[in-house]
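so my prof wants the structure for this chain in the tokens format not the other one, which i didnt know existed until like an hour ago. anyway here's the sequence
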Amino acid sequence: TNTSENLLQLTLQRLKPIVDGRLKPIFQKANASYPPEKISLIIYKLEKTVELWAFADKVWKKITEYPMTAYSGMLGPKLQEGDCQIPEGVYQMENLNPQSNFYLSIKINYPNAFDLERSKEDGRTQPGCDIYVHGKDQTAGCIPVGDTAIEEIFYLAGAYGKGEVIISPCKFHDAIPEIQIKIKMHWYQRLMQMIRGAILKYDQEV
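here's what i got, hopefully its the right format
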């Protein structure tokens, strides 16, 4: 609707001078042009970190990382409405909400096609929904990063382009970690390969 679009534009205008001042030196330090063409996030649940990647100068560069300010659930994907699990997978940023209860929020497209297919295969009927990257410091399955970080992520996504949000159980190093969910998931290895493949596009060192 026009009203929410207007509100989003007003919020981006309000954030611009604040965020530009903070981000320019951070981008400079990362040897990346500011502003970028678009941004993506890589989230590691075990390490509780959110990496900001930007597409600038025709390459993806890691700009900075933010700590998650709260955490819920355990390692392993989201399977059911109300399980408080943070999803795992390769997602896209969808809507930006300037009127979030958690200051500002970015909705991701969980459940995506992969989640819905696995859910159907497993006979699960309510995989859950409404997963956001947001401000503040509480969660029941979303990714909170605090208010300063969400200002920066929200502004970049709104002004310059929404990219992927990759949520991984952990940094892979050599092995895929032992997860704590003890439900048979014959597809979990395949999901991990998809996540790892998606991260490789950004970070050649995983």
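also thought this was worth mentioning. The chain has a mean pLDDT of 93.
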